[in-house]
Amino acid sequence: MADTSPIRIPDSLLPEDGRFGCGPSKVRPEAVEALSRVSRSYLGTSHRQKTVKDEVARLRRSMAEFFSLPEGYEVILSNGGATAFWDTAVFGLIRDRAQLATHGEFSAKFAAAVRSAPFLGEPTVVSAAPGTAATLVAEAGVDVYGIPHNETSTGVSVPVRRVAGADADALLLIDATSGAGGLDVDVAESDVYYFAPQKCFGSDGGIWLGLFSPAAIERARSVKASGRYIPAFLDLVTAIDQSRLEQTYNTPALSTIFLAAEQTEWMLAQGGLDWAVKRTAESAAIIYGWAERSSVATPFVTDPAIRSNVVATIDLAPEVSADAVNAVLRANGIVDTDSYRKLGRNQLRVALFPAVDPSDVERLTQCIDHVMERL
Ligand SMILES: *Cc1c(COP(=O)(O)O)cnc(C)c1O
Question: What letter would DSSP give residue 71?
Answer without folding.
Answer: T
